[in-house]
Amino acid sequence: MPHIFCTGCGNGTVINCTLNAVVEMGWEIDDTIFISGIGCSSRAPGYVATDSLHTTHGRALAFATGVKMAKPDFNVVVFTGDGDLSAIGGNHFIHACRRNIDITVVCMNNMIYGMTGGQGSPCTPSGAFSTTTPYGASEPVFDLAELAVAAGANYVARWTTYHVKELTKAIKAGMETPGLSFIESVTQCPTSFGRRNKQRQPSDMIDHMKTHTILLSKKKRLEEAGQKVPDDYFAVGEFARRNRPVMGVKNK
Amino acid sequence: MKLIIDESRCKGCNLCTLVCPYNIFQEGSELNSKGIVVPSLDRPGRCTNCRLSKLYQRRLCGVCQLICPDQAIHWVEEEPYEPLGVVIEF
């Protein structure tokens, strides 16, 4: 400390929430492992005083699977970004969800490749500008939480860095749930994303998250009533909590 | 309990001013030695929850500490208030 994240970067907030959840769970330093891939978000385990693995691009979940299989007693938490998880590590993510390994995945979705200069990622909203989408992104957005639900994760939630209390609770619930728990945190990136999209100040991006989120239950209710939810709104809340067969937990 | 902003860690993103429900944090106006505008605290540096947490066993809301990306905000314990400890000079 002070760490390398830019002014107003939401990754520090997600670290705070995760560490608070770890403290509430009462995990020991010696049997907790933080794993990350490559990117801004993946700098996080370096600032935590536990064992940590900084692995190759997109392979954080593959390394985490190995750690969990070798040491089923350890608590494994994976920090990863949207480009790391969904673009390069997409297949690892799908199959980790399918196998339902007992790890907690915290995805900091800042909608861009932040560290390498702001290229568009699969999560870049349509119409947003980045260095590889100078006329506005035209591709549809990858909804990571829905993907995790479809692939079979046991606990799936999505919150933003504005909803810090809910994010902490969701991470804690994910740590308590056996099986793969996936918590997506929509994070602001004022330096690479906001600068090109008229949200230069960190507070502008937080305001955007505050006004453009809708609770999942409310969204479902609106859709049942036949009302239309605007396209730029995204749902937050708990997407799934279930008891599918789990891999990587020691049989007692 | 009193709020403290660690100036060596703060990067001046002003997220605490945005989320505090008691408006304890205000946007600063002067550059510090590192060239960063650190948010200024309300004069006593205490919000309603900080002040009353001991008295009523209230839980701190702690949103400022949770949202601070640079881990710059923390609390310090204070001496309890003593009415006879005030020295009046004539």
Automatic annotation (TrEMBL), chain A:
Coiled-coil stretches noted in the UniProt entry, renumbered to this chain: none
Alphabetized UniProt keyword annotations: Oxidoreductase
Domain of life: Archaea
Domain Thiamine pyrophosphate enzyme TPP-binding span(s) in chain numbering: 38-184
Pfam name, any one: TPP_enzyme_C
Record-linked InterPro entries: 2-oxoacid:Fd_oxidoreductase, THDP-binding, TPP_enzyme_TPP-bd
GO annotation (BP), single: cellular respiration
The keyword Transferase is assigned to this record: no
UniProt key word Nucleotide-binding: no
Listed name of the protein: Thiamine pyrophosphate-dependent enzyme
Species classification: Archaea, Methanobacteriati, Methanobacteriota, Stenosarchaea group, Methanomicrobia
TrEMBL record, chain B:
GO terms, molecular function: oxidoreductase activity
InterPro entries with a match to the protein in the record: 4Fe4S_Fe-S-bd, 4Fe4S_Fe_S_CS
Domain 4Fe-4S ferredoxin-type: residue ranges: 1-30
Stretches that traverse the bilayer: none
Highest taxon above the source species: Archaea
Coiled-coil region(s): none
The protein's name in its UniProt record: Ferredoxin family protein
Species annotation: Methanomicrobium antiquum
